[in-house]
Amino acid sequence: MFLFWNRSSARNTNSTAQRTRAALGEDFARKLDALHDDALRTGLVTTSDLQEAYRKSREADLNPNKINLWYVLGILTFIMVLTPLFYEVITFLLGVRCFLPNNYIVSEATRPISDCGFCKDVSGPKILQNLTREKFAPYAYSSQPIIIKNAVAHWKAKTVLNFEYLKDLYERIPGAVDELCPFLQFRSDFKSLRDVFSMSKARSNLSNGQAPWYVGWSNCHPIVLEELRKLYPRPHFLPIDAEMPNTDYIFIGYEQGDFMHLDYIPRLVWQAQLQGNKSWIVAPTPECDHVCQSFSFYVEPGDAVLVDTRIWYHGSSIPNKGQFGITIQSEYG
């Protein structure tokens, strides 16, 4: 900012100029005097020009709030306009409970680089017939996907568990439907378990003209978990010392499935296919594309599937149009 300084005015009783000179310091003031003298010698400016410039600079100094006021008003307007929009966005994201808690983008961006040894020379799942824990032991912690045929065909859940059973179970246990358990909407239009159990009977059965749906959720409510585990035991082939969580997942619906993804979980995964067929597709992490390959496989009711979903990208669907599917999933390790 330009400040006018004149030695003759300094000799007067102009207190404003004296304060200005004192604030600037004598050395700086002398340099400013010399600059003004040089400007006057050019003949391009006059003393009155310099005084006018000084006057205008003083007006700006004395009215800084004019600029600050507009700045503050602009910020306040910006906040008032965007705050409601921001609130609606956050409310929506928090309402979709599978979105923020998984923090998938952050996990994907920060995951460690894979050692491609897990997928080298693997071109499909290892298929085993129903076997004992001792015979399964060599494969228990393998990174290769495994299908165990007819491993869960004897479970009571295979014949009892269906949409109506689950709806009745959740609705008769107080608070179960609204328990804040992870919910996965996948491609469906449902946002919560309450939405799922509120659908019409025609849609739940995928009657003619109804849109297909497929969802998953964690049965983390302790009473629900206790009741459901009466229908299926701990898989008999798992190691006796394998740690398991106090929650399982249920996947249920028609035709659709889940997207290709990794799971950011601490353990391996087993799935029990109770009803319907399911198609899986698995792929190595991108850094292993040059040594590994993608492949797909098919499971039938009564089969168990074991996949290290932490290192294999995976997706699934119910391939047969109009077919109902239900799967139980949990972890071990």
From TrEMBL:
The chain crosses the membrane at residues 69-87. GO terms for molecular function: 2-oxoglutarate-dependent dioxygenase activity. This is (Mediterranean fruit fly) hypothetical protein. Coiled coil: none annotated. SUPFAM superfamilies: Clavaminate synthase-like (SSF51197). InterPro entries: JMJD6_ArgDemeth/LysHydrox. Keywords: Membrane, Transmembrane, Transmembrane helix. The lineage of its organism: Eukaryota, Metazoa, Ecdysozoa, Arthropoda, Hexapoda.
